[in-house]
Description:
The protein is an alpha/beta fold. Helix content is about 35%, strand content about 15%.
Amino acid sequence: MPLSLLEPSTFPCLPALALASNATVVCIHYRLSTEQSYPTPVHDVLAGFDWVQKHLARVNVQIDHAEHPVETANIGVCGELVSGSLATMLALTECRPTKGGVKAAALGNAIVDWTSLFPAYDNGIPPAASYREATTSTNAGPVAPEWPSGQYGPSLSNEGLLHLRSRLFTRPEKYFDPFASPLLFFRTPGCDLASPVDDMHVGQAFDGPSAGDSTAAHDASLAETKKRPSRRKYPPAGSGLRLPYMRFEVGVESILREQGEEMVDVLNKSAKHWEDELYGAGDGGGVSKRVRLLERSGLGLWGENELRELGSWFGDVLRK
């Protein structure tokens, strides 16, 4: 049973996912806006998952005149971009194999670390081609839907994602939460907690400074300070969590490619450590089969063909 947290523009393609996976597909709608910022979408997704577990993935059977819940379905989750971040969070925190947890996850260009974004003047990252240009200048097929759009930024670029972050998190400490940046389950942030001034400067880059703004000039002493991340052990010992089958997809031209590559690296290390503890060192031959990285051309965004391919993958792994 794949749970979909896909972008609204992908909804018409959901029948392809259901048909290819031969499973029931449930789409979780979550609230996310400047008025309903983080952690609201996290709470909504977890509530939706609880509903699916209660109403679709379990049945109560009578045993010795008492009702007992019985698991009737394996659950997978999928999502891309912001939805991919939420799907990753759900897959990593609700993966108890004996309690109807997530068994498989497919993530496309997932934003797994909001803390790794720095203004271009701070780290020298050149602005990426605008999302509109990148999706309309190719002859490789249908034009992909625009994202981010409207008030959330003009492009899928470093600057666009910084602008989006400044709108969806009211305080920097909220995107330092692993439930918002799932990569932080496995390592510490690569910078110190940012000052609120940092995100304000990002907003000014798009909107311009407000009249009489005394902080229009950047104060270097308030900037995020980069540092070497330290490894965290996840899942924690005794948690009962087991990493699901995970498929991370990234576009070769996507600014989120590096995040996906690092996520797969830490997941493989965690899975190897877990299997070594369970079976003994040297016997973890199944690690590379549980966590995979797939590169797609261009930005690598999903359409009907990609969802059909994901459906076939879900059909295989959810029946293992």
